Amino acid sequence: MKLSGHDALDRPVGEGLTTRRVKLPRRVVERPMRQVARRVVIALLVLVSTAMIVWLDRSGYHDNADGKVDLLDAFYYATVTLSTTGYGDIVPYSDTARLANILLITPLRVLFLIILVGTTLEVLTERTREEFRLKRWRTQLRDHTVVIGFGTKGRSAIQTLCATGLKKEQIVVVDPSPKVIEAANADGFVGVVGDATRSDVLLRAELQRARQIVIATQRDDTAVLVTLTARQLNRGAKIVAAVREEENAPLLKQSGADAVITSASAAGRLLGLSVLSPSAGTVMEDLIQQGSGLDLVERPVRKPEVGRHVREVEDLVVTVKRGHRLLGYDSPEASPLQAMDRLIAIVRVSAAAGAVEHGAGGRE
Questions:
Q1: Does pTM surpass 0.70?
Q2: CB–CB of 140/132 below 8 Å?
């Protein structure tokens, strides 16, 4: 097998090859350091406010050390009072000072404790909340799509899937780089950090319950190993893999891939077509880019279309899929259409959404 390029699996260990964990997309919340800083500022304001209240009414307080209360004594009293330590060396003895303690300093003490305890509890419960979210995610995840590799090919594949109506919650990204998974989380996708050639990493992505698997690694040998592992874990999922060298495509199919895309050759053919006919190249690019202009979709034959000729169908049919056979629109065997046939047709974007939704009823 011919090898080419470099894969993410060649990254150093520091990039996270030994780390295998699921990372859920973070909710849009304020940054932790900013939250802590804001609470520290509030706590300091409470402390200063309490000290000022004591200092302004310093004549109503008595210091057992020298009998006088200065600014430093006011801050000392505020600190030990808010922290509920209360040594009793500085005490309010006038009615005004005691009333201020009841109406002002006691509520400030409660506020100070809320800030302190709230910050501590939030830190302690963060891990518990994450584990709860992860458990709920695993319970609800069914018939999802696993995308292995979040490079250019992986991102483009996800964009196409989302354009056809697949929700972000139904996509799981697997990549060995924590930074790449953080980027996937930022886009709203669940990510698994780890080497996709290992079965335990794929199990963390719940691949055994996936409906579709997209393998978009940078190296062809990695794609083969991932395909073998994925097919062993999930016999019924549709596996689509990308290779750089065309001679490696048969090996991917033997490993269990349902469809193999040769990225380098496909790009080269599109370049050649654009040279011969720029307009044809533009049309082809429009067809493979979901969500704009014309879309190439696969859908089942509708009941009114059963028994009709291919050319009588409203959409522009390119190929008829009958069982495992692909019949061209001009093939004599393609017509009449049968109830179990599937049509690969060119449709407008407005009609493509309905066609995809109508045709997403089950696995092939």
A1: no
A2: no
